[in-house]
Amino acid sequence: YGKLWRGGEILEKLRKNLKPHLRKLTPKLLRACNDPNGQTREQMGVLWETLTGGKADGRQVIKDHLTYTIDSLCKDSTSRLWRARVGALGALSDVIVGRDWKELGGGGKVVVGEDWVGGLGIE
Known about the structure:
Blueprint: H1 2-5, H2 9-18, H3 22-33, H4 38-52, H5 55-64, H6 66-76, H7 82-96, E1 110-112, E2 115-117
Helix pairs in contact: 3-4, 3-6, 3-7, 4-5, 6-7
């Protein structure tokens, strides 16, 4: 269905209508893009790229809804359903990798046990 939507009026109308709902859709689509079933993963990947516009635009959608997405995926990672856990953890790895500590909501000094950790590396 990606071929039918790309570059057409339907795609633009769909993106416009779904934009207010992207906050709630983002974690669900990312989880589905990491589903253990290859066919589901492939189809949801096409849907994700079609709705968000691809690599840089998709990353921007995630950035716009980062806190909600991480919270939702963390919650899904404790689901009773195996597929939900696997998808959520795969999506979390996609979301977290390549982002710095401040972008992920971190700030200040990092504490490991009772020891302070300076900078980005553990002393």
